[in-house]
Amino acid sequence: MLYESMSFLYYLNPEKYKLRKWREDNHRNSEQIVDVGEELINEHASKLGDDIWIIYEQVMIAALDCSRDDLAWTCLQELKKQFPGSQRVKRLAGMRLEALEKYEDASKQYDSILQDDPTNTAARKRKISILKAQGKSAEAIRELNEYLEQFVGDQEAWHELSELYINEHDYGKAAFCLEELMMTNPHNHLYCEQYAEVKYTQGGLENLELSRKYFAQALKLNNGNMRALFGLYMSASHIAASPKVNATVKKANVKYAAWATNQINRAYQLAGRGTKENKCSVKAVEEMLESMQITMS
Amino acid sequence: MSIKLTTQAYCKMLLHAAKYPHCAVNGLLVAEKQKEKKKDSHSTPILCVDCIPLFHGTLALAPMLEVALTLIDTWCKENKYVIAGYYQANERTKDFRPNQVAEKVGARIAENFSEAAMIMVDSTRFTMGCYEPILAIYDHHENKWKCRDCNADCFEDWCEAQKITSALLEGRSYESLIDFDNHLDDLRNDWTNPEINKSVLHLC
């Protein structure tokens, strides 16, 4: 039923369908959204029905991304007219102030939302975004930690915090955030793979072995994840080359690395079919793997 | 001792930054391998002929960077290139100082190529018209990175670079630019960007 209605929607109005898809996938393709959305609003507003309000919101945010304050202002006015006193619209007004770098005014806007509704997570997160935009990473991290003590299930926040820690090179704490995400999303191969990357970056034999395990886990969850495949190869190779491992461990990791090499080669062969340029990539990968095997033994 | 950039190298750097305005981006610059070291080699500048866009978003993780460096090194050897530089544009527009990532990667490249340069993109001056070069070039001297003034002399042909980069930005060519991240998402994506290279040549 769902597919029927989606294709029906597409047939009726492909632009509207595109906007919806981008909304659902949380794509930040702001220029495209502005292109499609602006035309839709200007030419076909009457045909959009109630969807027009969510489209105004989507286009407004995209317009801010593209420095189109004229368009953002128009959308905001329409939303203000339709939803006077709405916290959600107030937050959009705050985002516009952020885009204009009027951070104090934006902060006041969010504070007024929080006065009426202290549990408004969107306003709290925008305040943290302001800190980030101002380069106040330590404060952003502190506020985000406080936020997560209250809203422990907010995955977007955990992920944001992991990124903030990575940028500060605090890999231990970044790993902790990703562990939270993996616990609540055990089937998400991306979290596994990112966790493995963090562990690898942390370095040391123990972390390398952990990283190899989690690259492998990510692959189990999604065997198309090239980062996990490369990661498995790299971590196994480094472990095998380490003077601190005994012969058994070395042998096992050589096997893992060899398996990964095969899979990588296969993936490149499959991808390279037909294109002249990609043949070069295939060759480069083969040579790279060969040269690494030499250093490994 | 100094590097110069071709139009193609400059173009692809800026297209990469334009494709991901909300992210940090980084990449490598490659130069043609010199056949023999000339006696007065410090008078001939190194010409960076191409740019390989690497990542966008989180730059501070090691494994994929190692993969990219090794793979691109192999590709360089086949094409008689050498990795000669590294560029980075930070996430925040106003932040154009090199950070730990830039210094680490830069140092790694300098190990294999003593005249390596580190380039930071100054996004505050990034315009569609490209009226001035928006780079800060850092050279490696005695384990420190020293900033050098970037002007038209740092380009093989600044007028051409300005004209072509501006044209490609207007035409939104950055939408089809492929970086190493895109390649890892789908191996068919070609990080050598042959189509964009063709567009650059076409406009020359």
From TrEMBL, chain A:
GO terms for cellular component: EMC complex. PROSITE patterns: TPR. It is found in: Endoplasmic reticulum membrane. Pfam families: TPR_EMC2. It comes from the Eukaryota. It is a peripheral membrane protein. The keyword Disulfide bond does not apply. Keywords: Endoplasmic reticulum, Membrane, Repeat, TPR repeat. Residues 90-199 form the EMC2 TPR-like domain. TPR repeats lie at residues 155-188. Part of the endoplasmic reticulum membrane protein complex (EMC) that enables the energy-independent insertion into endoplasmic reticulum membranes of newly synthesized membrane proteins. Belongs to the EMC2 family. Component of the ER membrane protein complex (EMC). This is ER membrane protein complex subunit 2. It comes from Hucho hucho.
From TrEMBL, chain B:
Pfam families: UPF0172. It comes from the Eukaryota. GO terms for cellular component: EMC complex. Residues 3-144 form the MPN domain. Belongs to the EMC8/EMC9 family. Component of the ER membrane protein complex (EMC). EMC8 and EMC9 are mutually exclusive subunits of the EMC complex. This is ER membrane protein complex subunit 8. It comes from Salmo salar (Atlantic salmon). The lineage of its organism: Eukaryota, Metazoa, Chordata, Craniata, Vertebrata. The gene is LOC106562287.
